[in-house]
Amino acid sequence: MDPPASASTTTTTPTTPQQPAFPSIKPLPRTPRSFQTPTKRINTGTDLSTFLTTTAYRDILLFLLQLNRSVCPRRSPAGGPATTYPLTSRPSRNSSPPPSAPDPGPRRFGNVSFRKWHELLADRAPALLSEHIPDSVLSFPTTPSSDPPSTPAGDGGGEPDTAALDRIIVLGVIEPYLRVVRRLILTYTLEPAGSHGVWGLDDHSFLPYIFGSAQLTTPVSSDADPMPTEGSVRGAPKTGDIVKPAVVEAQRSENMYFSAVGFINDVKKGPFWEHSPILFDVSGVKDGWGKINKGMLKMFNAEVLQKFPVVQHFTFGSLFSWNQDPDAAPVSQSIHAANQPSYNYPATTAPRPLRARARRRPGRRVLRAACLLRRAPPASPTRVNRRRPRPRLRRGHHRAQA
Predict the structure, then answer these.
(1) What's the confidence (pLDDT) of residue 359?
(2) CA atoms lying within 13 Å on the CB side of residue 241
(3) Would you give the distance in Å from CA 215 to the centre of its chain?
(4) Tens digit of pLDDT for each residue in 238-250?
(5) In this structure, is residue 104 part of a structural domain?
(6) pTM (predicted TM-score)
(7) Crossing angle, helix 207-214 and helix 289-303, to 10 degrees?
(8) Region labeled Disordered — which residues (predicted)?
């Protein structure tokens, strides 16, 4: 086919071949939208299976993958050291109210003074948001401090670098939030609710292991490169160093993974393999932090997003929609989902007859009710003794004299 006439007279610049785009969340159309108040949708095991096919589940996973990739090291074009993103690369601000003094006396599930701090935070929340969010976002540069000044931010069209914004969320929002939570746990002796106990990673502190392992993976050259699934960045600590307290103390201020392990050492006593067996087993991985990062993502999907005790508290509205994802594959209901409550649906089986229950559990009340159904009189509770009474012998007489 001949090119159009306009193409023969216009000089075109050569373009590079299109690279595969990293999956990202599609922006919402700029049309008037009605706000939908978030509501609770997951009440039964069937709702859990439905959640796995919604656009909310898809968007949560994609957003997590984008945040995970944003803290992955970047390879230097000049062949120098790779650019890493430690915790000290972003300034932190402590905007939360200081904890109030705990009440005296031991508490089983934490000190009740935490409620006072929560009420104080709720009162100051609007002022804190309006005061700190604009300045915090504008104060972060769109490129890391170690990048050369000539490196343009974004795609050159005036749009900000989305990877830098994702790093702001991880290092400037999630990590400071975790520090506040850990401070509250130590101050008020709180006991976070977990669904696994010692034989698993706690649901409330899963993200630092994902992002912390991503900080130490093999560097990538561009956003088109796939996320490394093995290897580590040069100079990274070994995977087995999490059992060494000296290494943990040196790295906890630089890496989110070691920061979470350091907090475990602060609140738990005894051998590491005993109180944290899952992390101890993960420390034996020989393929580097990339392998650990891949496994943590799979574990988060299976043990957090697909578990009823966790996702039952999710709310869905305009941001996280309950609408079905047209590209979602059909999900078969797992044993875990089938064992969840179904109190919102009527029973599909009739109760057993009263007579059959009386045969299995012959209690006095059940037998009496069964007799009423048969219109038969109940049996006498007294037992008739038909045996001949034995004669009483006088003292000094033998049985033969009776």
Answers:
(1) 52
(2) 19
(3) 19
(4) 999 999 999 999 9
(5) yes
(6) 0.69
(7) 160
(8) 1-44, 72-109, 136-161, 377-402
